[in-house]
Design brief:
Layout lengths: L2 H9 L4 E3 L21 E3 L4 H14 L3 E4 L16 E4 L6 E5 L4 E5 L4 H10 L2 E2 L12 H7 L6 H4 L6 E7 L5 E4 L13 H4 L8 E8 L1 E2 L3 E9 L2 H14 L3 E8 H11 L10 E9 L3 H16 L5 E4 L3 H12 L3 H4 L4 E6 L5 H15 L4 E7 L4 E7 L5 H17 L24 H14 L12
Parallel strand pairs: 2-4, 3-4
Antiparallel strand pairs: 1-2, 5-6, 6-10, 7-11, 8-9, 8-10, 12-14, 12-15, 13-14, 13-17, 16-18, 17-18
The structure holds flavin-adenine dinucleotide, D-malate (MLT) and zinc ion.
D-malate binds next to loops.
Length: 455
């Protein structure tokens, strides 16, 4: 019996797609770097089905790729040829919200926005949030340890996980659906799988922390003259606001491109930097006045030079539309999104050096910067008409050499996948890489899980 026949017999024929049944969705994530379809796609509906599929694949030494919402930007979910893709899309749904414990238990294929809405209906905030919320899945968020726009207040995905259920390469189910904050009973196995990009196991369920749903959010867009002011204003916000919940910076080059692309004019004048700043609050007059007073103080001190306070959801949405820049992918040819981090104070000088080096090598290229500056995370958008593979390779080389010089990380939040795998050594020592290989070998001795990714 072939492996496909075995999988069909174990899971039912409808759960296994082959040949022309395999749609484009399974070929590439949002990095659009996938070139080949997998040999088959499995869409399990239960944990038992995931376990059965992995145990069959493991027995055959068959490579497997876990696939979530396919919004990843590092090629982590992309087939390289001949793999069985296990798509979690049908293992979806919120199972429980426990108001007393303030937890949500859900299946890994649940779309982030669906989980956020379920939490909000129950009066809670699910603190994970990112631009891809409408398509990315909780299992993908966990596997990439996603960052996003609320990290400054609630931490990265890892900080919001209490429990996990994972299926190991040989089909063993590890059920760790713990709801407690404190549990010092030996190794914290959950942490191995968070951020492992599907190389150590397939996440099938999770228990996440919930926070009180803020009654209101104050949003402002401010203009600043220098990167030093961006940092000084951040520090003021951290000192003076009660609940700073977003701090997103955009360089002039980014605003110029994105506001034109989205058809949204923010300020009449152009400024070197814009920042979206948000504070969670109770919606009271006092809170609103305090937020306005904070901005007034920053204007008086000369930290910021202009400010727009959102008067409605629509105003706030306009600021975020320019920041999230979803049209960028369509409008910029061969767009490369780089995602780096380094000590926050260094980011301004890094961006200047990066722009100068990229433009001297590629005059006429689009280079722009934006990011979660409160989390020391900078995104770099690079685009070049008719870029060749070797041009794009040169971009990586230039940027990652600079990151090393600035003692930063080559991936702040998007992960390593395939795209950054050759450069992992820029951010991790040989000893660390060896320890990672040993963990991989222990949990997946035949190396069937997402081979060629991360390490
Ligand atoms: P996929 O792309 O399907 O997979 C990502 C990785 O996880 C792959 O290695 C895959 O094999 C593995 N995987 C998926 N599901 C499982 C599972 N159940 N078990 C084991 N492994 C699994 N990222 C950020 O961190 N912050 C942002 O602010 C952010 N903004 C974005 C905005 C846009 C418009 C887009 C397109 C992407 C953005 N991303 C961001 C990147 C991306 O959305 C995140 O990495 C997200 O967490 C990926 O989730 P996914 O379900 O799409 O995973
Ligand atoms: C974001 O923060 O908008 C994403 O992580 C960056 C991207 O899409 O490159
Ligand atoms: Zn980001």
């Amino acid at each position: 019996m072939t492996i496909i026949e075995e999988l069909k017999r174990a899971l039912g024929p409808e759960a296994v797609l082959t040949g022309s049944e395999i749609g484009e969705r399974y070929v590439s994530d949002a990095s659009l770097t996938g070139r080949v379809a997998p040999m088959a796609v499995i869409r399990p509906r239960s944990v038992d089905a995931v376990s059965a599929a992995l145990s069959i694949c493991n027995a055959h030494g068959q490579p497997v790729i876990p696939q979530g919402g396919m919004t990843g930007l590092a090629g982590g979910a992309n087939p390289r040829g001949g793999e069985v893709a296990i798509s979690l899309e049908q293992l979806a749904g919120v199972e429980e919200i426990d108001p007393a414990a303030a937890t949500i238990t859900l299946k890994a294929g649940t779309i982030l926005e669906t989980a956020q809405a379920a939490a909000a209906d129950a009066g809670f905030l699910l603190p994970i949030d990112l631009g891809a919320r409408g398509s990315c899945q909780i299992g993908g968020n966990l596997s990439t340890n996603a960052g996003g726009i609320r990290v400054i207040r609630h931490g990265v995905t890892r900080d919001n996980v209490l429990g996990l259920e994972v299926v190991l390469a040989d089909g063993t189910v590890l059920s760790m659906l713990n709801k407690m904050t404190k549990n010092n009973t030996g190794y914290d196995l959950r942490q191995f799988f968070i951020g492992a990009e599907g190389t150590l196991g397939i996440i099938t369920r999770a228990v996440l922390k919930l926070k009180p749903l803020p009654a209101a959010r104050s949003t402002a867009l401010v203009a600043l003259e220098s990167y030093e002011a961006v940092i000084a204003f951040l520090q003021k916000a951290q000192r003076e606001l009660l609940a700073l919940s977003a701090y997103e910076a955009m360089w002039q080059s980014f605003v110029r491109f994105s506001s034109k692309a989205e058809g949204i004019k923010l300020f009449e004048a152009e400024y070197p930097f814009l920042v979206i700043i948000e504070e969670d609050g109770d919606g009271s007059e006092v809170a609103r006045e305090r937020f306005e007073g904070f901005l007034g103080g920053a204007l008086e001190e000369g930290l910021i030079v202009d400010a727009l306070i959102a008067q409605s959801e629509k105003d706030a949405r306009n600021f975020w539309t320019v920041r999230e820049a979803v049209t960028m992918d369509r409008l910029l040819p061969s767009l490369v999104n780089l995602d780096v981090s380094m000590p926050s104070g260094e980011i301004g000088r890094f961006a200047e050096a990066c722009e100068a080096e990229l433009l001297s090598r590629f005059p006429g290229a689009h280079v722009s910067f934006y990011g979660h500056i409160g989390d020391s995370n900078l995104h770099i958008a690079f685009s070049l008409e008719n870029a060749s593979e070797s041009d794009l390779h040169a971009v990586d080389e230039i940027v990652y050499a600079l990151v090393q010089r600035f003692k930063g990380s080559i991936s702040a939040e998007h992960g390593i996948g395939t795209l950054k795998r050759p450069y992992l050594g820029c951010s991790r020592s040989p000893e660390e890489l060896e320890a990672m290989r040993r963990i991989k070998h222990t949990l997946d001795p035949k190396g069937i899980l997402n081979p060629g990714k991360v390490i």
